[in-house]
Design goal:
With 381 residues, the protein is an all-alpha fold. It contains 14 helices and no strands. It has one domain (5-181, 196-367). The protein has helices at 5-14, 23-42, 46-62, 72-92, 99-117, 120-135, 141-171, 174-182, 200-223, 229-238, 243-270, 274-290, 296-314, 321-350.
């Protein structure tokens, strides 16, 4: 019998996997992420550096289910799909209320296609990049092309940096630690999996996530939220294939976001120097990737100030973003829990068994793990 909502949350909130701590991976990730920012500052365009950094950051996020010493094809696929999704989202963001169905359609297609190709984590992060493109201000055709190029540069810089760091990562056992921590009982997977049939449960799950994300965007537009993509991001990473893991992911993300926003608030209110902010970003980038598989709440605690400080480079003095991030995360997490609960009640009424996932255990990969409450999925910004 699976964990209850409360026990799943208690397990994930208190479980600290010391074996998941990887300081070497954190250092490598920090270098990969900070270089595009330094390059942007060096050429006098910090906003260009921010978008290149997003490309590098999400390349690292997209390979969560594979070690960063994977072969070139899946890494290139992640870089291309992330950049394309960011550009597409930028164009969709110019369509007004029409963007609501377009976002839902785009996310649904991305998640289903990624599941068919065997790249679930890449699909999730591409969906995140689509949402980011929709929500970041300044959308236009030329801007979409610029973001596409910058994100590609950032993504392929990350691939090059990982190739250079490969001997170091292998020497320190990163290949074993990253893969074994995420899937303790799974056999090694190939770097470029062949397409597999997509189950009905997976399609149903993708449609549910896409529809809920569209609802979150509609509410954000109605409320006039300045960073509506944070609502969508929270839904994308929190709405899981069972109510227990949805409850746990949502509340841990909310708790980590509140703590991280408090940290970021102190920095953004008093620091405007881009070099100091860049140094802080390097520290937070190292911390969030070093603790990525230690505890989801701790990971979110470091992720939140990283994202807020990154945006503060593009929009200096916007200390209010800390409060916006908390509100958006609470809204997105509340929607994820509400939808998962309604779906669970629907299945209970129809006597169809466990929510969203089929009885056979089919469904999105994060919910085929040995422990239902243990959060091991790809973790996006």
């Amino acid at each position: 019998m699976g964990m209850t909502w409360a026990s799943a949350f208690l397990h994930d909130a208190t479980h600290v996997d010391r074996k998941g701590l990887d300081l070497v991976a954190g250092l490598v990730a920090g270098v990969v992420i900070i270089v595009p920012l330094l390059a942007g500052e060096g050429v006098g365009s910090i906003s260009a550096g921010v978008f290149a950094t997003l490309g590098a950051l999400n390349l690292l996020m997209a390979i969560a289910a594979r070690p960063p010493v994977a072969r070139f094809p899946p890494l290139a696929a992640a870089a291309l799909s992330n950049a394309a999704a960011l550009a597409l989202g930028t164009i969709i963001g110019t369509t007004g209320w029409v963007e609501v169905p377009l976002v839902a359609l785009g996310i649904g297609i991305i998640l289903i296609s990624a599941g068919w190709a065997g790249f679930d984590s890449i699909g999730l992060v591409s969906a995140v990049m689509l949402a980011v493109g929709v929500g970041i201000p300044g959308g236009s055709g030329p801007e979409a092309l610029e973001r596409l190029v910058l994100a590609l540069l950032g993504g392929f810089w990350a691939i090059l940096a990982l190739a250079m760091a490969r001997p170091l990562l292998l020497r320190h056992g990163y290949l074993g630690s990253s893969e074994e921590v995420q899937r303790p009982t799974a056999s090694p997977q190939p770097s470029a999996p062949v397409p597999v049939p997509v189950s009905h449960a997976h399609v149903r799950y993708a449609i549910l996530v896409a529809g809920t994300t569209g609802i979150g965007l509609a509410i954000s537009l109605a409320l006039g939220l300045p960073r509506d993509y944070w609502v969508m991001l929270t839904i994308l990473v929190s709405l899981r294939a069972s109510i227990a893991t949805t409850f746990s992911a949502s509340f841990l993300r909310i708790g980590g976001t509140i703590g991280g926003a408090a940290i970021a608030l102190g920095f953004t209110m008093f620091i405007v120097n881009p070099w100091i902010l860049g140094a802080l970003l390097f520290v937070f980038a190292m911390a969030l990737f070093a603790t990525r598989w230690v505890n989801y709440g701790i990971y979110t605690l470091f992720l939140t100030p990283f994202v807020i400080l990154l945006l503060n480079l593009a929009y200096p003095g916007a200390w209010q973003l800390a409060f916006v991030r908390v509100f958006d995360t609470v809204l997105g997490g509340g929607l994820a829990v509400t939808v998962a609960t309604l779906w669970w009640l629907r299945d209970r009424v129809e006597h169809t068994g466990p929510p969203i996932s089929a009885r056979s255990g089919q469904g999105p990969p994060e919910d085929r793990l040995p422990k239902a409450g243990h959060l091991r999925s790809a973790r996006a910004p």
